[in-house]
Here is the input.
Amino acid sequence: MATATPHSPTGAPVDPPKLDYTPQAIPLPEPTPAEDRTRKHYLNHDTSLLGWIFTVDHKRIGLMYLVGVSLFFVAGAIAVGLVRTNLITPTGAILELDQYNKAFTAHGTIMLFLFLIPVIPGVLGNYLVPLMIGAKDMAFPKLNLASFYVWAFGALFFMYQLLVGGLDTGWTLYPPYSTKYSHTNVLYAGLGIFITGFSSILTGINIIATIHKMRCPGMTWGRLPLFVWAMYATSVIQLLGTPVLAVTVVMTAVEKLFGVGIFDPKLGGDPLLFQHMFWFYSHPAVYIMILPGMGVINEVLTCFSRKNIFGYAAVAWSSVGIAVVGFLVWGHHMFLAGQGYYLAMVFAFLTMLVAVPSAIKVFNWTATLYGGVISYQAPMIFAIGFIVLFTIGGLTGLFLGTMGTDIHLHDTYFVIAHFHYTMVGGMMFAWQAGLHFWWPKMTGRMYSDFWSRLAAIVMLVGFALTFLPQFVVGYMGMPRRYPNYPDEYQLYNVMSTAAAYIQGIGYAMPVFYLTASLFFGKRAGNNPYKATGLEWMVPSPPDAHNFPATPTVYFGPYEYGVPDGLSIVDKMNGHTNGVHTNGAAKQGVTSGS
Amino acid sequence: MYAVMDTPPFLPPQASEFAFSDASIESMVLSYDSLFWYMVVVTSIGGLAVYALLTYCCFRFAKSDTHTKPLRILGSNKLEVIWTLSPLLFFLSFFVYGARVWDKAISIPKEAAEQEYMVVGKQWMWKVQDPDGRRHINEITLCQGVAVKVTGTSEDVIHDFGVPAFRSKFDVVPGRYTAAWYKPTLVGQYHLFCDQYCGMGHSQMVGKVNVLSPEDFQQYKDGLYRTAQAQRTWAGGQMPKGPLDGSPAWQGMILFRKLQCNGCHFTQAADDPTPPKAPSLENLWMSKRELNDGRTVLGDRDYIRNAIRNPALQVRSGWKAIMPAYHSGLATEEDINNLTAYIRSLKPGDLPNRVERTPTPIGGAPKASQGEPNPKPEQPMKKEGDK
Here is the structure.
């Protein structure tokens, strides 16, 4: 018989909270409004500048990432605004040829290296992984801070090369163009990629170590929230893939600086070597970008449909499957580059295999909604948008991974549309879903329900209309990276640009209502969405050290449905019921099938 | 000879056997568009099934006053197996089918290998050499129904020789040779793109693929194609005086009418009351030209170019400075070369009258900058417009 919970002020038996869901651990009591105003939490316990600069608090570091990646998102968005505006007319509306090339290169490099790769691992990964597993902080808090500053330092090189004239190689940096023929700032950009890569590696190490060593009692692998599983898979890719990119960049620099023939055939090198090495990282890198997003979707869908995830084990292992097989498919970027016949066959075959785990996830998400009680706040609209758009992104990827169809579609707007459907329709929507879902936890304030839903719908409509025409114009043959194009493609480009402006409005809206929520938003309370995860068991914003005492986890992460007697209340009072005995719960059988 | 499906305007033309051919069951099945549309149908069915389920769940299970109790469902191993294996099955069908089509695309037939076009990519142009040795820039001319091989390499960076109408594309890599083959089936003029980013002029590295009928192609090989084109251009109209051979002078003659030079520089026709507004250009070449500021200049290349680019600077004595300046947007340097050749060729009586126009050939007017009608005016280009 549990005499008292740690949170009972008098030691008397706690009046069991009436919950219609089962949290993973015993929730802390809600602070009263008076307490809430004076409460010390991670944001206000030390407000000095040094307290932020030298903080090792994973939550503060997460917020610093949030500010950083948001700024770079704006920079990348401005670049693409120039690109899309230029494409209104077939001869280029506003930019010269070289300006256009620099604009799309800036868009690609900034969005990939400074936004998509760090955004969810850096912000939500940092912020949530320790909270979700019941830890006080990351395994290596100082390393965590270092990885932020390394990233910021690398980003400085990107900014510097933009200021001194930009880069015009495309984010792919293919030699011999990049090593010999481009007269732009390849070296600075390469340095930026090299340094931000180290940040990625350090974050990966930290998250892997944290998940292995810092889980609270009862937090078995089978009870980890699926976001944590996704972060784990992502970190493995970051750790194993990024060094190869660093090596590639160094080789490029050596060739450029010292004329050592590595890639340039005139010096005895082989340009395909670069492509193999580059894609060995850069294909898994798309999974670095999308896997954390998929993790977010699991959390949001279950919460807003009040359901257990359908097939916990399948979703968790499909993340691992993507991470492993994703390393073996890089050659599908090079079908037409002159790699060998049988090599292409192997890559095409493995590409079909790597598509399966993504399909499994989509099916499981859809099945999760079955039998739920679904409410449509902004995070849920973003999450549903994610499923809708990612399905298109994934299915069109098959056309590019199939050897026959890739011949015609390679390097056309079909490719552009495909990866924007996965990277923006998928990742960007998952990021918005996650940001809106955990914003009350991070800031303690609720944002406007109306404006957030409207923004979600504007983004969804704007996005779909921007990139659907690009599938058509790509199949017609319009090559990517073309500032000038034949007249018959103009209609599609005008449609695309018009919708891109709508999308831009959608992205601008959260800036206003999220900022406004900080000042005028109503207080969120511990758990505004009645979610089950550990991060919701503590007040919002959380204390500096997350939990007053290490929590104990009794259940799986998504016990929203209430079976007979399975409830934290029973656990508090020592009751057990049915198959879900204490022992069974400890073995982690409350989730999965 | 080849029955070709009509394609709607938002789809690229199917101009090669690989793109689509219904000559035999095998060639139909192994053509690009068959594979593409097979995949479109399968993925659409799969995608729509997911959407249908999603829509059903979103509406059926939306929270309401009466619907407040969720079910507790943890999963189903049976379903997991079904939706792991069934997509895998279709994905593998894409792989096998796609590999067969790929195999067809890269297995160059013997007869194609005998007709080898050489392509060299260079920032930012395509240099093409026919099997019989003639060279072209940004233009490749093929014969309908004749399979050819195109072998490419690059002088500098990686390019990509892409012809959407043929559903064909291959990277052109410095230091090695890569190749593709085509069997064009549809007469017309199609886009040639560089598909691999190659620097500032990437989007300028475009050209034309001409597919000629076998008769036209024979004339092309004999060097008579332009003459034949010229005759066709004026078929049905009055044959003009002047060259008819596809020479620069011939192209200049077309331009002269197109730019409406003969609105002022003309030979007064017997029934035309309007006198010329500008001096005759006959006998101009290398003659002494008296200007109204008293100078005398030689009627050479420089004079003609200046007279077009900046006419007010040297007005012929006795005439007013009414001619507009033709900047490079109206007449390129190549155009001026051709106009000069035409003016040089003019004999007394050759200058056209005021109303003579270039008859518009069926299938679109020649462009000022090219001065060249479509390869086969009788059959207007169906799919891809002349840029």
